[in-house]
């Protein structure tokens, strides 16, 4: 055993994870038999992180586990000031970082840790950083905390510490789901939340939690202090035997990122993450489908490719016996599953092919009547808070708000596109994940001609994103401009938003309007002859302002804005420039 006292009072004790070493732990003092500690068990590919009041007894339990039989190294973090709350927090902190780096397969279950405050938490968090650095010096981590936290594996990890309203929603949803399963009932649950409230995290979290319950060992000792420990008691596991669960994600880029996370996570697999078209082609029915970004499900419309038009018709015929034009992908979800959990934000619909606003409103209202509606309020992304999200949406609405300041949130307004671009490059060197993004107000010329530039503003030239899959993390993306289809659902540290000439302002009538000829998203303005729908400028204004509201709520630390249309620039300056 080895361990050096750290300047902040913690030691990391090293032992082999063997029956002999575990037996000897009883002789090592009270810190191993009657004191709160955090520990790691690992081999070259797998790791388990835990906390306990009796390390010796807990290691004996782990020795009996077949899942941990091939683990070889034990590290115990000991601190004179540790208490249960601090240990739970450190355990959660390390699990998230191990899962986020992705070097090890994290064996922990998802029993639930909430983001709870406790006495002197800020001081303990300083110690946690040093524990991390100690473990990194020993090779358990290779990257720094900021590098890990900027990764998709971290951002979409199922090992999150849920905030209060996320945890409450998950608990209530599971109670209702298990009640429905037991009674043989079916039903639809709706979870509504603004950008940054963690809808995707809740979806992924529930997938992992349900799989953990489904595969739990009745003989294993469960921590009664864990948030969802009651769901691991007798009865719940039995209800989930043979239970088929899938996660439907309409957006390609986001879907691919989540599949990478599932590939690294025990009991989850990339094949569990489906597009609506994947779902329609799969045989059999799911017991539960969780649908992220449900507002991006499609109604019947001209799809991005000819084969998808054919598939839409074939899936309708397969599921319903006929190709009625009223069928939507939401109908597919309902037909292919007994239970549905739909995560939705109607203000993030950005194309006419998305589910109609009336359908979404009906979905939400019906779920409220059935007591199957949950609201996420806490803003987890933007440091400007929920007030900032509401403010941006109001600024882009017919009823603008009173100009407001958002404290330390770095909201800036630029008159020179080159200066804004340079500032984004500087933020990238400081924090990573700083990107230029824009409304779809320029033709995508470089798609077929790699030497062409797409966007020209006052002599400055830029290219659109050269890939639609995982663009944010692609080499060279700092030199490109991302569209709505590459960033919706993702976090940035800083977003440099270019408001193109598709959105304009009439200073006489004091209103926002769109310039249709400057909007180049073909599917974003295409009429729907199949359903006999012609989209007016007013309809497109809703989609285009939704696009810009989404873009302006990507930045965790800050949002920078440049506006092409001069009247709109002067109008927005009063809301988005520095306000005292």
TrEMBL record:
CDD domains: GIY-YIG_COG3410. Residues 34-106 form the GIY-YIG domain. InterPro entries: GIY-YIG_endonuc (IPR000305), P-loop_NTPase (IPR027417), SLFN_3-like_DNA/RNA_helicase (IPR018647). Pfam families: SLFN-g3_helicase. This is DUF2075 family protein. It comes from Paeniglutamicibacter sulfureus. The lineage of its organism: Bacteria, Bacillati, Actinomycetota, Actinomycetes, Micrococcales.
